[in-house]
User: Fold this.
Amino acid sequence: MLVNFRLFLIIPLTLLIGSASAQASRLTTLHSFCSEPQGSACLDGKTPATRMVEIGGELYGTASAGGSKMLGTLYRVSTGGSFTLLHTFCEKAHCSDGARPGRYLTRGALGAVYGVTAGGGLADGGTIFRVSGAGAFSLVHKFCSEARCSDGIQPISVLFDGTTGALFGTAAAGGSHSAGTAFMIDRGGVFHVLHNFCSQSGCGDGISPGALVRGLDGNFYGTTLAGGKNHAGTVFRMTPAGAVTVLHSFCAAKNCADGEQPAPALVEGRNGDFYGTTAQKGAYRSGTIFAVSSAGVLRTLHSFCARSNCPDGATPIDGMVRAKDGSFYGTASAGGRFYYGVVYHLTEAGTYSIVYDFCALHGCFDGASPDASSIFGSDGLLYGVTAAGGNRDNVGTVYRLEP
Assistant:
């Protein structure tokens, strides 16, 4: 189903806030969700929390709620603000097409985009879906399709391997130890479990894996939300064959100064280290930014909420993206000047600064609670979503930001 909504007004914030925040002049709201209400439903979706992907000037994303069935939507929005609804989840009987789409999307071949849903499919185990460049929606896999959900449930993300045509991904639960799986779907559509988490003594290899990223060395790197030596999550490396090595178990430092509950996604730096965030603990108990080497040496680069009222942000739920100059950009879902989250910048040398404070406009028309990281568009600008705020029902926005 393709439904096109023209945004009634794209709002450059310079026209609205004057001197309230000079940095706000760089943000443009491309879409405010619930622009097409129908009773209590928001047909275009609400509460977006997905890191978008761009293909040819078109941004793809999902909303975790809303739609005619109130279980999420898949959409496309141009960098100029034209919004197209591609799919409403749970359209089919028993939500066989999926429900509650996940946080990450990935590019495929020929302009296709892959994503996951945490529910729907078989036994509410979740799905992997594909949308073609023309907007056609199809399913790749329904989880819990194997006995005792040995293939996993609640998928987190998939990566497309352009060389082999395979998909690699993770599920947060299910598997032989009910702690999640890492899997591969080959070009022929055959599903293979690569690793069952919590297979090591005391769940030393972690519980509930996050998204995978492929390193330049050909291995996969990721985090687990829990488990590990200190039961606070891990950073791990996995070979394409599924052999897992834990690089760091969080809460190794006194008072968990190194953080706990790492965000699902890592990013590789130019130095070969992997950078990420934790949502909890750290020196000020509001999360951290860290880097970990392939040898497992972890450095804490920033602890959030370093000052009263957390003007530097708090509780980063997603990881970061890398800029062309090797620096990093990310979001924190809380804190900041107006207490509704920030976009931040981290140089390669570790210097931290705020790029944008959300809720700079009265009523948070510019958005609030950026739960997902921004991405860089081909034009060099940042694009992202907020889970709240906007100009109608406070259910989120799509924004463009000049870094």
In short: The radius of gyration is 20 Å. The helical segments are 14-17. DSSP finds one helix and 35 strands in the chain.
